Amino acid sequence: MTASEAKPITYANPELAGSEKPGTSIHLPYGFGPIPPADSSKPNKVFYFDIDNCLYQRSTRIHDMMQDKIHQYFKDSLQLDDEEAHKLHINYYREYGLALEGLVRNHQVDALEYNAQVDDALDLKSVLHYNQQLRDMLIRIKETHKFDYFWLVTNAYKNHALRVISFLGLGDLFDGLTFCDYSKFPIICKPMNEYFFHFLDLTHTSTNFRTPGVLKQQYFVDDSEINVKAAHRLGFGNVIHYVELEEEYKKLKQKVDFEEFYGSGDNADLSKIRIVRDILDLESVIGN
Ligand SMILES: [Mg+2]
């Protein structure tokens, strides 16, 4: 791949038409990647950001809105009653990690049609709002010049990712986006190693990210326990787990492998996963 393959992404969310606020329009200079070749003597240092339930709070209940849409999709597309739809949805989620994967494998569902009726149909406007505080914090982190790139990494399809970022007013702060491509089969998403390798390749063009020390310099923030553990296992040196809910935090601390992944849980050991309870605390745990 060459740098010329990267096309900038611009997107104006029609639901925000007329908004003059910075960041409501999207401009990602390197689009879906790749970024320009790095100087091999100086590997890129990238901050990778998850989007859903990470750059906005889980308490927006977007996840629940999505579950309702998925349930309706199972009912309508497979002609199931509520109970059958619920069972199948749960089974596919357990078996494949994504309900969609089960639908594509077993029912030849068109993944992009599904996406249009589920993710793209969510009423995000009613729950996601311009987040000036988050915007200001991300700008402060950028201004430290510790990072060469800010990169979004999501398990959603691109449309949803761009909509979310525009509603939050963060559309001009990232260099690019890696999304989960529902049009491919099988679907590759976090926490699969293949997905990590895919976005690492796109952001470390001429520097092999497997070179010792390169992954140690990278930053990754996500609200999903399996995703942060996967990043940590792969060798990311700076993994941050956003744990919003108290109940989830308590459960996490009780796990037998807590110390292995999180140390004593006070973020003192920078070789372990760091925990933030509010995304606005990100700035305080990024170290030097
Ligand atoms: Mg997430």
TrEMBL record:
InterPro entries: HAD-like_sf, HAD_sf, Pyr-5-nucltdase, SSM1_domain. One of its GO terms (molecular function) is nucleotidase activity. Coiled coil: none annotated. Residues 1-20 are annotated as: Disordered. One of its GO terms (biological process) is pyrimidine nucleobase metabolic process. This is Pyrimidine 5'-nucleotidase. It comes from Meyerozyma guilliermondii (strain ATCC 6260 / CBS 566 / DSM 6381 / JCM 1539 / NBRC 10279 / NRRL Y-324) (Yeast).
